[in-house]
Amino acid sequence: MTRAFRGSREIFRTARKNPQARKSIRWGRLFSAMPSLETRDRRNVLNWLLGLWGGGVLGAVFYPVARYLSPPDIPEAAAVSATAGSARALLPNSGRVVPFGSRPAIVVRTPAGELRAFSATCTHLDCTVQYRSDLQRIWCACHNGQYDLNGRNIAGPPPRPLETYDVNLKDDEIVITRRS
């Protein structure tokens, strides 16, 4: 125990035992028992350095967590065209879901043999749609949303039609392109 604190302890002990001594304690004697200004300055610097170190540790831990929880907005390259496989393999009254950039597309061959392509993402909750040959419709399994073969919403909760893509044939390959 330091000498400064021992002195202040003795002052308070004396004041508790003897009420007369309580009156006679001088403020000067009480303050002389406190740590010196030099000791307090050193302690403040050490506390400041310790706080700075603790803040650095917290920053080093929480900054990567915050960056993970809110990733940067990096726009993806928008695909202009994509191949959808062989035209001979797609039979009449059937459909195929193919990748088109970051989202899927659906290519449908109607019962009459015409090729059509749409976005395969439902306009209701972004579920992937599929072609149902028994209904001759594009169907969303999430909430039973249905689209006709022109991409128009005809049943269920979808609020708007599917985005339509252009279909071209290069030799036997189906090439779908985004309309501009």
What's the gist of this structure?
The chain has 180 residues and is of the alpha+beta class.
Number of helices: 4
Helix and strand composition category: alpha+beta
Q: Indicate the multimeric state.
A: single chain
> For the record, what is the CATH homologous superfamily label of the largest domain?
Rieske [2Fe-2S] iron-sulphur domain
- Name the CATH class of the largest domain: Mainly Beta
CATH architectural type of the largest domain = 3-layer Sandwich
Rg, Cα atoms, Å? 39 Å
Major β-sheet strand ordering? 1-10-9-4-3-2
In round numbers, the mean pLDDT is 81
Described by the principal axes of the CA atoms, the overall outline is elongated
Identify low-pLDDT runs. Answer: none
Find the count of extended strands (DSSP E, 2+ residues): 10
How would you sum up this structure, described in words?
- The protein is α+β, with helices and mostly antiparallel strands.
- The chain folds into two domains: 3-69; 81-178, Rieske [2Fe-2S] iron-sulphur domain (Rieske Iron-sulfur Protein).
- The chain has four helices and ten strands.
- The strands form two sheets. A six-stranded antiparallel beta sheet has the order 1-10-9-4-3-2, with no helix packed on it.
- A hairpin with a 2-residue loop joins β2 (94-100) and β3.
- The chain is elongated.
List the helices and strands and how they pair.
Blueprint: H1 3-17, H2 19-24, H3 27-32, H4 37-69, E1 81-86, E2 94-100, E3 103-109, E4 115-119, E5 129-132, E6 137-140, E7 145-147, E8 153-155, E9 164-170, E10 173-178
Antiparallel strand pairs: 1-10, 2-3, 3-4, 4-9, 5-6, 6-7, 7-8, 9-10
